[in-house]
Amino acid sequence: LSMHIGKPCDPIVSVGDKVQVGQPIADTDALFSAPIHASVSGTVKAIINNAIVAGGKKTKLIEIESDGQMTTWNGLQVPIIKSRENYIDSIRQSGLVGLGGAGFPTSVKFNVNQKIDFLIANGAECEPYNSSDFYTLKYRSIELLDGIKASMHWLNVKKAIIFIEDNKMEAVKILQKILAEKSDVYNNIQIMVVPSMYPRGAEKIVIQMATGRIVPEGKLPVNVNVIVPNVTTLAETGRYLKTGMPLVNRVITVDGNAIKKPQNVLAPIGTEIYEILKFCELDEDSVDMVIMGGPMMGISVNDIKAPLIKMNNAILALTKEESGSHLETECIRCARCIQACPMNLSPTVMYHAIKINDMEHAEKLHVMSCIECGSCSYACPAKIPLVHWFREAKNVIHNQGGKK
Ligand code: SF4
Ligand code: SF4
Questions:
Q1: How far is the CA of 288 from the centre of ligand 2 (A)?
Q2: HSE on the CB side for 244, CA within 13 Å?
Q3: Using a 6 Å cutoff on CB, does residue 148 contact ligand 2?
Q4: Are residues 95 and 130 in the same domain?
Q5: What is the predicted ipTM?
Q6: Please, what's the largest Cα pairwise distance for the chain?
Q7: What are φ and ψ of residue 69, in 5° steps?
Q8: Tell me, what's the pLDDT at 404?
Q9: Ligand 2 atom closest to residue 340's alpha carbon, by position in its atom list
Q10: Which of 29, 169, 273, 345 is deepest in the core (most CB within 10 A)?
Q11: Which residues make beta-bridge pairs with 65?
Q12: Total H helices, total E strands in the chain
């Protein structure tokens, strides 16, 4: 029940209840949150308190035994929107969160007091392997444009930019054609094509390239009057506004050399990761590591029986050669990590501070500005998982009341 940034949801169903697809099963009053809906029809079999999900995080889990019917909940309604408040409330009811991996509740992202100058639809999916956003750009263009259009209208945003890397020209051409043919329907939406380079999709980098504005350390895009939803989140917005079906499925990339049939898969949220891997023909003899998300920013999965959650955009089953897990050695102070860092940080110095638990020094070195892009880990010849150290340190500093 922890599928977003913020307080996890609490169950609103009990063991033995019958549920149907799209029915709310968990929610909370917390501001930073999004409800969770049944993705299959069936019976609530168990509510487990300390289930372990990806990254080793413990949370509550509702186990539903599917009846195989996928019966739609009869309480579903296409949202009728008459005001900005209706719109934000409907987006919350849809259960939408940032589907690019962040899990930021979409209704919270949209519910801002500041005037918004730009909505940037982030289609810069720059992690190697991942292609679920490319799938959206190419095959769900109308839903994406509908989601952008509705968000511009209700949030009073005059200009939208679809931000795409130049390795996705097929999708660019499709979108350009629709925008040219339907300029009366989709206006003030521009496509910005940028050279493909990691970590191009990081929010602060996207904003700087698209608008020239710099988000200060510890601040959010809204502080520079910009919002940056991911393209798949916007396509889900467009789909939800037409159908009323909340977020119950998502497309994920399944890849890695231990997968015989790599592909993008549409799966019900909550499906066991192992089932998805088997569907794509996992080679159980060669798999060394399973990662949720991309190889640079992803989190290793301790238990492949864990469920798929909303913000998982990829599952990678890597062989030993790909994961490099057996190769880690001592830091040789070569400074390659410093050259690789797009935020001009000193990863090696931060790493040595964190290793001796000197969080004060790490904070002074601006570890909180780390965007967790993983470029330093990738560049490191000693194969030190630097980004994992920084992620942990940020959590510790945040919990101690430091900057976020
Ligand atoms: S790249 Fe790796 S080995 Fe080189 S200085 Fe950075 S942490 Fe040390
Ligand atoms: S993960 Fe490494 S390269 Fe990326 S921002 Fe953080 S310190 Fe810099």
A1: 25
A2: 11
A3: no
A4: yes
A5: 0.98
A6: 62
A7: -95, -25
A8: 42
A9: 3
A10: 273
A11: 43
A12: 14, 15
Is 314 within 8 Å of 308 (Cβ atoms)? Answer: no
237/276 same-domain check: no
Token pair in block for residue 37: 């809906």
Count Cβ neighbours within 10 Å for each residue of 46-66 and write b for 16 or more, e otherwise. Answer: ebeeebbbbeeeebbbbebeb
Using most ligand atoms within 8 A of CB, pick from 333, 350, 351 the residue to mutate for ligand 1.
333
Total domain count, the chain: 4
pLDDT in tens, 214-242: 998 788 899 999 999 999 999 999 999 99
Question: Closest residue (by CA) to atom 2 of ligand 1?
Answer: 380
Domain ranges, residue 111: 84-243
All residue ranges of the chain with pLDDT < 50 are: 403-404
φ, ψ for residue 47, nearest 5 deg: -125, 115
Backbone angles phi, psi at 209, to 5 degrees: -70, -40
Q: Is 209 in the pocket of ligand 1 (CB under 6 A)?
A: no
Pocket test residue of 328, 331, 386 for ligand 1, highest count of atoms within 8 A of CB:
331
User: Is 5 a domain residue?
Assistant: no
